[in-house]
Specification:
The chain has 228 residues and is mostly helical. The protein has 13 helices and no strands. Helix 4 packs antiparallel against helix 5 and helix 11 packs antiparallel against helix 12. The N and C termini lie far apart (56 Å).
Length: 228
């Protein structure tokens, strides 16, 4: 075990809550084991840990994240993402390989969505050549989590969203019965509708999207009374 992680793992295991763990595991369709530490408590533990032990050295970042990712309880994957996100500004082009590995390993929406919007999105902005290199491969990979990443990596871009790219990606992935892709299409459109409602409304009207995608895309616009 990495020495840096020993105190974190110790305090996490000291806060096991079996009642919470059972509920959390059930909510996630029994795909992962849990310690039973809810997000607010985990964030507090991480905050205290970073305050006392500092952020890991850049050279140690990958092995630390990989070790946390291999641990059986899901909260340790959340800790790994916490550490990565706190080090976003220091990530290099090479770190896209680590993020890609995490997306494809122990894959589920709870990790993939954070990795896509908080890490892939920022890496693609910082190093545009990575987007040119990885996006086409992910799109054609057949891996729904890489494809979902293609759809939602721009979630926080707002006015900097490449809307033509977004619509192109949706057009290529819309003919699917995969729930997580149809949901992501709607989510991406809903998020962009807060920047350009007209563009989203026009796109939804002319595109043959799944009912789920349409519903999710227009949810915010209907809620705010921009459309009926």
């Amino acid at each position: 075990m990495n020495n840096y992680l020993k105190p974190l793992i110790t305090v996490m295991k000291a806060n096991i809550n079996t009642v919470n763990a059972t509920k959390m595991k059930s909510y996630m369709r029994n795909k992962f084991d849990y310690l039973g530490i809810k997000s607010p408590q985990r964030r507090e533990i991480m905050r205290d840990f970073i305050k006392e032990y500092g952020k890991p050295q850049q050279i140690d970042l990958t092995p630390i994240v990989e070790e946390l990712w291999q641990l059986p309880q899901r909260e340790f994957q959340y800790c790994a993402m916490d550490i990565l996100i706190k080090n976003t500004r220091y990530l290099t082009k090479e770190d896209i390989e680590l993020v890609e590995h995490l997306i494809m390993t122990k894959s589920w929406w709870d990790t993939v969505d954070l990795l896509a919007s908080n890490l892939v999105g920022k890496l693609f902005q910082k190093f545009p050549e990575l987007q040119e290199q990885y996006l086409p491969n992910w799109l054609e990979s057949g891996n729904i989590w890489l494809q979902r990443t293609c759809l939602i990596f721009q979630l926080h871009y707002k006015k900097n969203t490449d809307v033509n790219l977004l619509f192109e990606l949706i057009d290529k992935l819309k003919d699917t019965d995969e729930f997580f892709l149809n949901k992501a299409i709607g989510w991406a459109l809903r998020q962009y509708s807060k920047t350009d409602a007209t563009a989203v409304i026009d796109f939804v009207r002319k595109s043959k999207l799944a009912a789920l995608s349409q519903r999710e895309a227009l949810k915010w616009l209907k809620k705010t009374g921009k459309i009926v």
